[in-house]
Amino acid sequence: MKVIIGIDPGTANCGYGIVQENGGRLKAIDHGWWSTAAGERLELRLKTIFEGVAALIAEHAADAVALEESYVGADARITPAVADTGGAVHLFSASAGVAVYPAP
Fold first, then answer.
1. Does the global pTM surpass 0.70?
2. Distance separating alpha carbons of residues 61 and 69, to the nearest angstrom
3. Distance of CA 65 to CAs 9, 78, 93, Å?
C-alpha cells in the first residue's frame, strides 16, 4: 500500500490531493489547499506551504509526492513565485526522505 500526495503549486492557492494505492486501485483519502495573502512577504507565504506539506507527509506517512509542473499562462510575472513554491515542496520532501515526481 502506498500513499501519494499530489500538489498543484501556487503562492495564492496551493492545492493538494492524497490518494492511497493498493493493488493497482486508487482511493482518494484527502484534499484541500493552502491560501496565502497577496500582501504577505513571499518567504512567509512559502513557509505556510512548507509547513502544510510537512504536516501532510507526517500525518499520512506519504511514500511519494507528485508535483504538477508549472506553465506560463496569461501572467508570466507569477512564474517565479510558482517556481519558488515548487522548490519549497521539493526541499521539504527531500528532507523528509520522500521522492518527488512530476505529475502526469
1. yes
2. 23
3. 12, 23, 7
